[in-house]
Amino acid sequence: MGINNWPEGERPREKLLQRGSTALSDAELLAIFLRIGVKGKSAVDLARELLTRFGSLTQLFAADQKDFCAIHGMGNAKYAQLKAVLEMSRRALHEEMRCGDALNSPGAVRDYLQLLLRGRGHEIFMALFLDAQHRVIAAEELFHGTLTQTSVYPREVVKRVLHYNAAAVIFAHNHPSGVAEPSQSDRLLTDALKQALSLVDVRVLDHFIVAGTTCASFAERGEI
After folding, report:
1. Pairing between β-strand 214-217 and β-strand 203-211 as defined by DSSP bridges
2. Which residues lie across from 144 on neighbouring strands?
3. How far apart are CA 214 and CA 222, in angstroms?
4. What is the DSSP letter of 100?
5. What DSSP designation does 22 have?
């Protein structure tokens, strides 16, 4: 039975308008994006199939074009739409961070970093460069690594900080393993970066580790 034949209060679009987006399941939100299903499947059925196939929204968003388009009912147009939605979300969060003090907008910082880093198959090390008022000047992916590690060079980080004339910096990297717990290497790297940047009077405000739906903060743990 098509969604149009469902009781009005159970249709995803009407449910969202009446009760807000937080009232919807992942499948219902995805169904609104898909708009229509395929023969024999409603948009919600198709959304559930996609979530089962990829395991989660995070993994769906990280899917490459070939795997996404291999699903019956998907294609290049839907893939482009999905990537456009994700990029608009990233840019909106980036604008929110640029307009205010990053330390007073921890939710926006976390959301931005999770959208950017979770689901990535390899380690990415990035930095948010801040001015003296802790407003974000720029965000940049600095180093890319293997499945389990990446090499970060403090000298190159200092060069990028000076390039942006930043007064402070927030670092972040992902753990493809899905475990957000900082390793001893993460702690040693953070200390090395703090020491290198202190020589040019730049503060390291935080270092986030993104793993799945978790975003761990060194500052909140008292480790920075």
Report:
1. antiparallel
2. 124
3. 18
4. S
5. G
Neighbour order of strands in the sheet with 214-217: 136-144, 124-130, 168-174, 203-211, 214-217
Q: How many residues are given for the chain?
A: 224
Tokens of 2: 């098509």
Look-up: residue for tokens 């001893």? 184
Tell me the per-residue pLDDT of 116-152, one tens digit each, with 9 for 90 and over. Answer: 888 787 899 999 999 998 888 889 999 988 656 678 8
**For residues 194 and 106, what is the distance between their CA atoms, to the nearest angstrom?**
21
Q: Give alpha helix (H) positions in 55-180.
A: 57-62, 65-69, 76-98, 106-117, 154-163
Q: What is the pTM of this model?
A: 0.66
Reported as a single tens digit per residue, the pLDDT across 179-192 is 888 999 999 999 99
Three-state DSSP state, 124: strand
Q: Identify any residues that bridge with 209 across adjacent strands, giving them in sequence order.
A: 173, 216
Q: Burial of 66 by CB count in 10 Å (0-12 exposed, 13-18 middle, 19+ buried)?
A: exposed
